[in-house]
Records
---
Amino acid sequence: MPFVIALLAPVFWGTTYALVSLYLQDMSPYWVAVWRALPAGILLLMLRPRLPTLAWSKLSLLAFCNIGAFFALLFIGAYRLPGAVAGTLGATLPLIFLILAWLIDKKRPGMKWLLLGLMGLGGVILLLNPSADLDPIGVLCMLSATTLIAFSSRWMQRWDVGDFLVLTAWQLLLGGLMLIPLAWFMAGPPQIPSMDVAPSLIWLVTANTAVAYWAWLWSMRNLGPEIMGMVALVNPVVAVSLGVLIVGEALDMRQWAGILVILLSLLLMKLPQNLRWNPLKARG
């Protein structure tokens, strides 16, 4: 059962890009971000009406990074990039963790980790090759959004965040409120969703946001970040599959090779230690 819960987050998040491409292209990405975060936060607070135990300053910082700025950047990227590309860039989180540990904590990666990091970077270069003609703003937004998640994940590992359902609810509520002035400034007055997109927004609010964010935080606490790093690879697999099969996106051979290289590097990073080749043991 814990692994079923863990899978909910990446599977549901992987549908975001296809959902935007098929049903939400006519809406502003900023207001879509508002309509995703704010109702989800209210829904979770109705289920668990409690005040957070985390200090408001820290909670506001998490809400900004995890929800406010993250959702805005995510939807801009989703609107400007093929879902397969956006989903794969979002899966570079372990690579960004490695870089932050090196730059901030001065933890230099071993040769194995350095080679895997360079392998993942090579995959990104293949994915973003000049002939692909990808939107640079979309690429920058996706990488920036992933970096914000990396920073906030580091903080949550160090802070006593209390009840994760309450934490998720307040992050979504505060993040949604933060997005309103940005959406109003960038896209004008609120866009009231039409009935045509209501089913898509209901999915986005309930499964894609409320359930998925709770499942992710619950699983991080109960299964640990290493297992969840492995489970997170389901996200780009779902995004790529839906993009190609349903949306009709087409990728060239170099982009497919880049996606495979990135996923392989992340897979090798997350293999249990006893499954990796040890040259000392190999020599007997």
---
Amino acid sequence: MNRTTVAATVALTAGAVLAGSAFASSAQAATPPTPTITAKGGFVMNNGTAKTLYGKAADTRRSTGSTTKIMTAKVVLAQKNLNLDAKVTVQKAYSDYIVSKTASSARLIVGDKVTVRQLLYGLMLPSGCDAAYALADKFGSGSTRAARVKSFIGKMNASAQSLGLKNTHFDSFDGIGSGSNYSTPRDLTKIASSAMKNSTFRTIVKTKSTKQKVTTKSGGYRYMSWSNSNAMLGSYTGMIGVKTGSGPTAKYCLVFAATRSGKTVIGTVLTSTSATTRTADAKKLLDYGFKK
């Protein structure tokens, strides 16, 4: 074998090794390692195709905390002939409720007139249970507040049924239930995916903070400032929502969505151990979802 042939053989072999390693690395990139999360339940899907990308106890019923408010907003936004600029007067009952439950609040002030749109911001950003109560009172039907609230929760359950969800039930408008307020990572992701079809919902849940002008009891005005409890907005590239949740039973929950290069990944983590681990769990699942 002459020197030229040897050189050509070596070059060919080296090329084959390089090609082989390139092939191996592309194969690895195609199947990223399945992430390990702290949360007891998790689910991720491609929002465009509804293809499941990840699941951990995805159909196990768990307490949902304030992620319940995704459905609260969805029911409001589904009302026929909805006027987002309609005014609602803040009642003492909403304020008393917050105090009695030591609940998260939009700090609504009794007697103020706020619009439905503003209540939705107060519901989804600071996770206002007072805003949730006001919306249930406004959009439920009945001659008493209790009847209207019951009617509204009925609409939440009807909406879940219309989405074909078998593992979701609501007994409250805000997640502070009496033991039978539950969903699953898969079901909550489907609720959020459906809610995200509404442009008003999308605009609200991707808002980091807002300052809203409301009318006071005396006819003047004040500004309400609300910040979004979703820490991933602005810290995770492409983050577009959706909602945090927490509670004694629910622990720490997050329904999340992000868009990169035209692909939207949406998912849920339920029963994580802290606000920090909830965020870390969601980040792992989004990273994984974008690679799949």
---
Amino acid sequence: MGLYVEAHIRADMDELWSRTQDPAQHRRWDLRFSEIDYLPRTEGEPQRFRYAVRVPALLTVSGTGITAGERERLDGTRTSALRFASPHPLCPLAHGSGYWRYVPDAHGVRFLTGYDYRPRWGVLGALADRLVFRPLMGWATAWSFDRLRLWLERDISPERARANWLAELAVRALLFTGCLTGLGLESAMGVFGRFGADVAYLYPLLLVVVMSLALFKAPFTCTPAARRCLRAPADRTTRTPRVLHTLEKHG
């Protein structure tokens, strides 16, 4: 698979399964989707769904897909797989497939995904995908997995987690901009009077330190962060599940 993300979540398997398989809960934590709804199906057929992504003040792109799930294997592992496609000409992802796997261990569940897709717009689309869309999709998947982890482990709702992330991002941007422009340097020197003037040579160093913290300090524990997730499989137990072949037969 082209993209891989894994998070370790200290939670009950059934609760994790519910919050990822129920569309009403799924769309709350997954940054990649604005809407997810199951469509009517006949007995024995994989579940079909409709998804949409809204870009505020610009447009909404939508698509459809099918998903199939194995409730549980003998070792406790669960899997769900999907295929998706969007006919919207402005959607950079034409069609693709992927899976979620739930691997229990002594301390929770390894929740992982592997997926790939074919970009739209020919050679130009392939270049844009490699430089922009694919890194963005990988980041959004990892960020969303950590957001889900916070919801299950610490009872921080997806909405609160997003607010925490935006607030921290704003503080970092404010600190970085202030350091970049030297904002507050003269006023700080005035507050400390002569002492401030005597140690003025230290202020550039202080600005560098603050700027470095704004850029590189680890996110707060209540804030979702893509960096907390693995971006490559740690072992060979993450091969593509057989359930994908079921979806192949249903197109």
---
Amino acid sequence: MNLLRKLWNNLHLFMALPAIVLFGLFFIYPLAQGIGISLTDSNGMTAPRFIGLQNFVDFFHDARAKKDVYNTVFFAIGSAPLLNLFGFLYALILDRPFKGKGFVRAVVYLPAVISPLIMGYVWYFILQPDRGFLYHLLASLHLGTGGSDWLGNANSALLVLVFINVWQFVGMTMIIYLAGLQSIPKELYEAGEIDGAGYLKSLWYITIPMVVQSIKINVVTNIIGSLSVFEIIVALTDGGPGYSTESLSIYILRMLYGSFTGYSTAVAMILFVMIIIPVFLFMRYINKKEFEM
């Protein structure tokens, strides 16, 4: 009986066991294996040789790698805040009652369900100089087409990529914010009105604190997605012109195909840390702020 009572009292631990096993099998084990490979000169063909931290040292001395870090961080800093800002604004607007609200929501959300690779190729043909849709549209409106090679210009290509990424995935962010907004009890706004709170005060003291879980989800997923960007760049610029739009994800793949398995794995570990640090700092900040709201 004592054994059965102990099993019953610890049943929750056994219920968590499948999740723990899967987490260990598909995250901890690959991570440990990746760390091991990153410390070798593995090329995927011959027996690897342990070289310690040499791959990491080589990365920080590689000018191309530094440029890719800049591109990746620039893309994330441009995409993640804009996705959350416009996603929240869309949600506020489309949470109001008006005719055709469902249709507008569907139109805003639709690009998010299309593969970024396919969407990238669609925009590639839209932005083609001399023969793209946008080129002919500007020409027909007599707005000028000078310097219309937006993807072939190192100064504009990365900005165009940020714009397209925000346009495609703002609907995904909007849907999550909408779910948070629709869970807020109407009584809170009514109480705010009685206390004399205007729209801006209600937004700051009621809406934002009540959608903090949606904020967490959107910020974390947008940080992860922006720092690991791959498909949209491959489809539109393939990292060019030169390496002006190459991200770390593309750099990792090219090093891997170049038989630098150990080095590419080391870069993947660096990218993993680059993603974990801002996510950890944000979660720590938002959890503290939550108690102040």
